[in-house]
């Protein structure tokens, strides 16, 4: 059952989710943000010739010789952190019907000086026929994250499986947090979202759901990635808590 709430879905993003309100739905950029962030059209990130220049400041954070695959994986994780909690709340609890394509003309992405993603902005609502959650989830995966992952993979050589693992982990965490914060009020909507987003092996059109099977349950109820996120290849980093690699891995 969809819960009636206005957009943006800030009423539902409480507790740790409060710090994840980094998507502006149909709101103008604030002046102070415009002054310190670089606003781009996210579609640039799927263009192989443009990605190196766009992400050069981010790559420079880690020093010469750092595995570019791990850099791309870290950037994709940060992108997921600023987009998925808010978008999933909007889709699952607020029945938001906006245009989720990476190349949507209304979409803008804010990058910090080091090119780390900061905020996603929808300039206006897109006119579209009413769509089910499964249809909107497919649009987010196929028309948004898949082109983004392709651009990052061509730039770095990282396996798309690593990047989809990032998405799966953040989807799982976001839905778990929504349920943890609001319990019975959102249980049915969160269960429905989990069934569409994580449990279903296929998308709305019958094609493969790219995040299905990226995680496996542990005996304690937590989730473990099936593919390492490569964080341990970054300077000063170790294996993350959900890593499938043995703890002895250097």
UniProtKB/TrEMBL annotation:
<protein>
    <submittedName>
        <fullName>Ferric iron reductase protein FhuF</fullName>
    </submittedName>
</protein>
<feature type="domain" description="Aerobactin siderophore biosynthesis IucA/IucC-like C-terminal">
    <location>
        <begin position="122"/>
        <end position="211"/>
    </location>
</feature>
<dbReference type="GO" id="GO:0003824">
    <property type="term" value="F:catalytic activity"/>
</dbReference>
<dbReference type="Pfam" id="PF06276">
    <property type="entry name" value="FhuF"/>
</dbReference>
<feature type="domain" description="Ferric siderophore reductase C-terminal">
    <location>
        <begin position="225"/>
        <end position="245"/>
    </location>
</feature>
<dbReference type="InterPro" id="IPR024726">
    <property type="entry name" value="FhuF_C"/>
</dbReference>
<dbReference type="InterPro" id="IPR022770">
    <property type="entry name" value="IucA/IucC-like_C"/>
</dbReference>
<dbReference type="Pfam" id="PF11575">
    <property type="entry name" value="FhuF_C"/>
</dbReference>
<dbReference type="GO" id="GO:0051537">
    <property type="term" value="F:2 iron, 2 sulfur cluster binding"/>
</dbReference>
<dbReference type="InterPro" id="IPR008090">
    <property type="entry name" value="Fe_iron_reduct"/>
</dbReference>
């Amino acid at each position: 059952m969809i819960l009636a709430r206005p957009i943006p879905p800030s009423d539902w993003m409480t507790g740790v989710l409060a710090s994840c309100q980094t998507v502006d739905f149909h709101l103008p950029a604030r002046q102070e943000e415009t002054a310190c962030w670089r606003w781009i059209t996210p579609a640039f990130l799927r263009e192989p010739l443009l990605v190196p220049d766009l992400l050069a400041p981010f790559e420079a954070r880690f020093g010469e010789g750092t595995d570019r695959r791990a850099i791309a994986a870290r950037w994709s994780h940060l992108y997921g952190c600023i987009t998925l909690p808010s978008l999933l709340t909007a889709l699952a609890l607020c029945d938001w019907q906006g245009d989720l394509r990476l190349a949507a003309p209304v979409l803008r992405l804010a990058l910090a000086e080091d090119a780390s993603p900061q905020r996603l902005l929808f300039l206006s609502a897109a006119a579209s026929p009413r769509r089910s959650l499964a249809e909107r989830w497919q649009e987010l995966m196929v028309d948004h994250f898949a082109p983004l992952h392709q651009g990052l993979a061509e730039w770095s050589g990282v396996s798309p499986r690593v990047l989809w693992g990032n998405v799966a982990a953040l989807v799982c965490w976001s839905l778990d947090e929504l349920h943890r914060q609001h319990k019975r009020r959102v249980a049915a909507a969160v269960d429905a979202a989990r069934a569409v987003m994580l449990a279903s092996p296929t998308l709305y059109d019958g094609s493969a759901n790219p995040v299905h099977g990226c995680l496996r349950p542990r005996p304690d109820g937590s989730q473990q990635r099936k593919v390492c996120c490569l964080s341990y290849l970054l300077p000063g980093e170790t294996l993350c808590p959900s890593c499938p690699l043995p703890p002895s891995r250097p």
